[in-house]
Write a structure and sequence with these properties.
Keywords: Kinase, Transferase. By secondary structure, the chain is of the alpha/beta class. It folds into 2 domains: 105 residues, STAS domain (Transcription Regulator spoIIAA), CATH 3.30.750.24; 179 residues, 2-Layer Sandwich (Heat Shock Protein 90). 33% of the residues lie in helices and 27% in strands. The chain contains 9 helices and 10 strands. The strands form 3 sheets. It has a 5-stranded antiparallel sheet with strand order 6-7-8-10-9, sandwiched between helices. The chain has a 3-stranded parallel sheet with strand order 1-3-5, with helices on one face. A two-stranded parallel ribbon has the order 2-4. A hairpin with a 4-residue loop joins strand 7 and strand 8. Helix 5 packs antiparallel against helix 6. The protein is globular, with a radius of gyration of 20 Å.
């Protein structure tokens, strides 16, 4: 079967595509699916992670995935296919690039699959170095941010069938924002939460997962700290936002007048696994300088 990507690919418009390839029993609709990129006009960072997650989900269910691109690609930084190529999306899923001179953009971390076991090294090396270079501040200033993203990997390890996350990030200097999109292709947060609270719908189950002290794990290791800590650090302390999509539920966490405002909604489209978008305010990140002590020798 052949499916067309939405012309504007965002975390809001992704459900049109997901519904076209996933049936009501939550299985792939066909054994071979061709994705038509010809009408794509815009894709945001979250769209790259979402596409990667969908491809990984399909491949793990034995589906052959193909990609259809226009014969003529208008190269340039504003072209969505160039953007995807620069992110290394096509190289990963068809084994080659599709534009003449693809290059990783300095404001992005290219698409990558990171396992929980490798997440500590990725966060401390790749992510911290990139973020430090983008903001012109020392790694010491990024400890809370690094810890917050680490909580997403803890969530993946606790709730996903496979402990791997698809990651893509971009810095928007003019907007003073960094968007980090991470997704896994597990069974989703709601299915785990319902083992403890079986009556909760998906959106309320996600909200429950963010409550401090709540955990769906029999082990006390996490103690419900993961998503709560992420939201506290990003929304309350940084003034940013956290958006979580899992199965049929969405939870958006933003700064309200009296603390964190959580908006839980139910969709008629299914997201396989869990998608988390973190929006950071770069102008709210404190620049902590490394001040070495000066010694005088007499």
């Amino acid at each position: 079967m052949e499916v067309r990507l939405p012309s504007n690919f965002t975390r809001h418009t992704m459900y049109e595509l997901l519904n076209s390839v996933i049936d009501y029993e939550l299985n792939p609709k066909d054994h071979t699916i061709t994705f038509d990129f010809s009408h794509l006009k815009f894709i945001e960072p979250s769209g790259i992670t979402i596409l990667s997650n969908l491809f990984e989900w399909l491949v793990r269910r034995g589906v052959n995935t193909n990609i259809l691109c226009p014969e003529r690609i208008i190269c340039g930084k504003n072209d969505p296919l160039q953007y995807l190529d620069d992110s290394r999306f096509f190289e990963r899923y068809i084994g080659q690039t599709i534009t003449d001179n693809p290059e990783i953009r300095p404001t992005t971390i290219p698409l990558k699959l990171v396992t929980y076991e490798n997440s500590y090294q990725w966060l401390n090396m790749d992510f911290t170095y990139w973020l430090s270079q983008q903001l012109g501040i020392p790694p010491k200033s990024l400890v809370n941010i690094r810890m917050s993203i680490g909580e997403i990997f803890n969530n993946i390890n606790d709730h996903a069938q496979e402990n791997t996350g698809c990651i893509f990030a971009q810095h928007y200097p003019r907007a003073n924002e960094i968007k980090i999109a991470i997704s896994d292709f597990g069974i989703g947060i709601p299915n785990n939460i319902r083992r403890i609270k079986p009556s909760l719908q998906d959106h309320h189950a996600i909200e429950q997962a963010t409550v401090e002290g709540f955990t769906s794990k029999t082990s006390p290791r996490n103690l419900g700290a993961g998503l709560h800590t992420l939201i506290e650090n990003v929304v309350n302390n940084n003034g940013g936002a956290v958006h979580i999509h899992s199965n049929y539920g969405i939870l958006s966490c933003i700064k309200g007048y009296n603390g964190i405002k959580k908006i839980a909604t139910l969709k008629n489209g299914f997201y396989p696994g869990t998608f988390i978008e973190v929006v950071l305010r770069t102008d709210a990140i404190e620049n902590i300088q490394d001040n070495e002590e000066e010694f005088e020798w007499f």
